[in-house]
């Protein structure tokens, strides 16, 4: 567990959806439920400019540093917009998150941990020369780039954020050593407007599952099962890197999928299994999006940390009186009582065939038809 209290300094200001309180509440809930007792806490240091330059252009890093010093916008760098307001200290805050994901990558690569998580990370929209979508430095891409420099030859990245993982895809689009898989709401209805099935990268190593608005647990898990396990088994990564934006939840104010915390927890458990089945257990996880700050993010990511620690939480577990009181003091809101939304989602695979009239099955088959033949896989169930 990579953690430093300063990771909450990544703060675009009052009213911005990416409020650092979501991470603060997550850590408090994980502590309340004893989850942090099951992990080894590890500190981090900011990524250096040379490390950031593995993914980002030098002139962009210099621009972020200038904005960081005086807080004045640099629109060419994407800082000063509604999505990415300029603020003093933005470089330091962003470089620390990047450094935390690099620390996670280092711990897994060097063998001091089998799994590692940076819950404050997952800033997957940042581009090599521009901030985008609340993201300044692309920490998942930096972790992958660092692993490649150490000698890793096959890395798989699975992104379950409701928004397309466009920045990570862009960095490795022509690199056959990196398989990027993103399951997201269709770009026809959601930012960033990319992530169509036809975006296949080098030898089919960019994979996009564009799900229709309104897709819930059953459909989402069906799509995951139909695409992710067969590709990971075929690709055979040395390390699995995952991004866990929980903005796919039905209560999220910025998107239109309808998952529950229970569905998200089911996906985390599936990725854990796949890390062991396909990558020798080596797993690096990050947070990501998630804008329902009280009802969703703390519970979803506490489940994630517990899954990574190998001690999953019973969904019926109460959230705890002390945590609920802390939420009330910190936000003025009423916290959820338990760790479940009361759903019991299960995988519904394609073994019975697919329905061409169903929009979710059409999305699944669009992806399978686009990339499965490039991996020697039959797109038909």
Automatic annotation (TrEMBL):
Family: Belongs to the histone deacetylase family.
InterPro entries reported in the protein's UniProt record: AcuC, HDACs, His_deacetylse_dom, His_deacetylse_dom_sf, Ureohydrolase_dom_sf
SUPFAM superfamilies the UniProt entry points to: Arginase/deacetylase
Superkingdom field: Bacteria
GO biological process, alphabetically ordered: acetoin catabolic process; epigenetic regulation of gene expression
Assigned keywords, A-Z: Acetoin catabolism
Keyword Cell wall biogenesis/degradation: no
Family matches, as Pfam families: Hist_deacetyl
Gene Ontology terms for molecular function: histone deacetylase activity
Involved pathway(s): Ketone degradation; acetoin degradation
PANTHER family assigned: HISTONE DEACETYLASE HDAC1, HISTONE DEACETYLASE HDAC1-RELATED
Domain Histone deacetylase: 16-307
Protein name (database record): Acetoin utilization protein AcuC
Keyword Magnesium in annotation: no
């Amino acid at each position: 567990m990579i953690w430093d209290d300063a990771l909450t300094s990544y703060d675009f200001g009052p009213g911005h959806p990416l409020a650092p309180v979501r991470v603060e509440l997550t850590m408090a809930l994980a502590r309340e439920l004893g989850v942090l007792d099951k992990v080894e806490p590890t500190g981090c240091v900011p990524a250096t400019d040379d490390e950031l330059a593995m993914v980002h252009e030098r002139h962009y890093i210099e621009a972020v540093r200038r904005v960081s010093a005086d807080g004045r916008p640099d629109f060419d760098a994407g800082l000063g917009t509604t999505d990415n307001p300029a603020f003093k200290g933005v470089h330091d805050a962003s470089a620390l998150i990047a450094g935390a994901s690099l620390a996670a990558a280092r711990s897994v690569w060097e063998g001091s941990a089998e799994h590692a998580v940076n819950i404050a990370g997952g800033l997957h929209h940042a581009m090599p020369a521009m901030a985008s979508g609340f993201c300044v430095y692309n920490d998942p891409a930096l972790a992958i780039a660092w692993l490649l420099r150490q000698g890793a030859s096959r890395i798989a990245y699975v992104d379950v954020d409701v928004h397309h993982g466009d920045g990570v895809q862009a960095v490795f689009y022509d690199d056959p050593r990196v398989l990027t898989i993103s399951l997201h709401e269709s770009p026809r209805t959601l930012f960033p407007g990319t992530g169509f099935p036809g975006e296949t990268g080098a030898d089919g190593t960019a994979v996009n599952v564009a799900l229709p608005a309104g897709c819930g647990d059953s459909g989402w898990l069906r799509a995951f099962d139909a695409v992710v396990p067969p590709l990971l088994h075929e690709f055979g990564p040395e390390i699995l890197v995952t991004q866990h934006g929980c903005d796919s939840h039905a209560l999220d104010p910025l998107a239109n999928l309808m998952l529950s915390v229970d569905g998200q927890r089911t996906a985390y458990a599936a990725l854990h299994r796949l890390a062991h089945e396909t990558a020798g257990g080596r797993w690096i996880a990050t947070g990501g999006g998630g804008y329902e700050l009280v009802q969703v993010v703390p519970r979803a990511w506490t489940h994630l940390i517990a899954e990574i620690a190998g001690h999953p939480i019973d969904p019926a577990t109460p959230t705890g009186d002390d945590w609920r009181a802390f939420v009330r003091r910190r936000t003025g809101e009423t916290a959820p009582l338990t760790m479940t939304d009361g759903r019991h989602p299960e995988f519904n695979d394609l073994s019975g065939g697919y329905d061409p009239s169903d929009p979710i099955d059409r999305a699944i088959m669009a992806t399978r038809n686009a990339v499965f033949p490039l991996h020697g896989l039959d797109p038909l169930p």
